[in-house]
Specification:
Number of strands: 19
Shape: elongated
Keywords: Flavoprotein, Oxidoreductase
Pfam families: Pyr_redox_2 (PF07992)
Order of helices and strands: EHEHEEEEEHEHEHEHEEEEEEEEEHH
Strand content: 15-25%
Domain FAD/NAD(P)-binding: 17-293
Oligomer: single chain
Radius of gyration: 24 Å
Structural class: alpha/beta
Number of helices: 8
Protein name: Thioredoxin reductase
Number of domains: 2
CATH superfamily of the largest domain: FAD/NAD(P)-binding domain
Helix content: 25-40%
GO molecular function, one term: thioredoxin-disulfide reductase (NADPH) activity
Length: 346
């Protein structure tokens, strides 16, 4: 006899879930997918402002290379819903502790309870205050050689030095083009770094950058404050990356400086577990340099760890009830925590 389970897909927000996932990018959706497939009640709350929205396509993702970011998200949402997970649009305003769980408050006044929380809200790229950078961001102003490098290969690339990783970034782009120039701007290379750049044929232009020269909807050069202009077609810049995590302040969980000096992140162990019990983080909110594939893998890992953590809790409660008097209250509590509405595993 074949038994088919009917999974109801919904766009509505229920009162409570085993897990609330805040953020609906690759990390959040893959974490929710793992949890939904483990028959957990899970909802993804997504504000709809992905970091990679300006990009034409996702790269370095096996079997999905070049897929538009919006299409990848829509496919991920459909897969989560296929297994009974919920995906809703909303912005989380605050998370507070309630007993052993959490209350997740949305900016529109809605609220939902969760036993566990998975934070996958990503980060904000803070660009230097150079006219033209923001307007060209994701087009011919790029940051990641693995995300955009192939598309700008063999072109005249300028690297704007704004932090400690500028030389590293220039050397990565040198793999993709023989015409790379480092603009020292606010972070001139050290003696050792200057030697590395010279050995690889990367020119160094001293002085602060004033703006980008744009003509015909494309970059044609980089203008310095002293009036000089250096012809370039592409500009690479390392933004300061800051985790989107202000809504966690009431839990005592705040972004801290990343060891690389590239910005601020929510600290978590390799499984995604943070210092706050019951809260996991995955993707760019904790790993500033993670690409889409890395973020998706981290979300899957965190989802599996959360499921295991819930199983451990439910087993402890079941053992306690098994050893103690079988009151109606204890049986109802175990049934609720172990199975929810579906009552599997009893």
């Amino acid at each position: 006899m074949v038994v088919a389970e009917v999974v109801v897909m919904t766009f509505q927000l229920a009162d409570s879930y085993d897990v609330v996932v805040v953020g609906g990018g690759a990390a959040g959706l893959n974490g929710a997918l793992m949890l939904a497939r483990s028959r957990r009640s899970v909802v993804v709350v997504d504000a709809g402002s992905p970091r990679n929205a300006p990009a034409d396509g996702v790269h370095g993702l096996l079997a999905r290379d070049g897929m538009p970011p919006a299409e990848l998200v829509e496919r991920g949402r459909a897969e989560v819903r296929r297994y009974g997970g919920h995906v809703v649009t909303g912005e989380v305003d605050a998370v507070t502790r309630e007993g052993d769980g959490f209350v997740v408050a949305l900016a529109d006044g809605r609220a939902v309870r969760a036993r566990r929380l998975l934070v996958t809200t990503g980060l904000v790229d803070e660009l230097p205050d150079v006219p033209g950078l923001r307007e060209r961001w994701g087009r011919d102003v790029v940051h990641c050689p693995y995300c955009h490098g192939w598309e700008v290969r063999d072109r005249a690339i300028g690297v704007l030095a704004t932090g400690p990783m500028a030389t590293h970034q220039a050397l990565l782009f040198r793999q993709l083009s023989a015409d790379v120039t480092l603009f020292s701007h606010t972070h001139p290379p050290t003696g050792e770094q200057a030697e590395q750049l010279a050995a690889r044929g990367v020119d160094v232009v001293a002085g602060e950058v004033a703006s980008l020269d744009v003509a015909g909807d494309r970059i044609v050069g980089v203008r310095l404050v002293d009036g000089r202009t250096v012809g370039r077609e592409v500009v690479a810049v390392a933004p300061r990356m800051v985790a989107r995590a202000g809504f966690l302040a009431a839990l005592g969980l705040r972004p801290v400086p990343h060891p690389s000096g590239m910005g601020e992140h929510v600290a978590a162990d390799p499984t995604g577990r943070t210092d706050v019990p019951g809260v996991w983080a995955a993707g760019n909110v904790t790993d500033l340099s993670a690409q889409v594939g890395t973020s998706a893998a981290a979300g899957a890992t965190a989802g599996a760890q959360i499921n295991a953590d819930l199983i451990a809790e439910e087993t402890r409660l079941a053992v306690a009830a098994y050893r103690g008097p079988f009151s109606a209250e204890s049986e109802a509590r175990v049934a609720e925590l172990v199975a929810g509405d579906r009552r599997h595993g009893l």
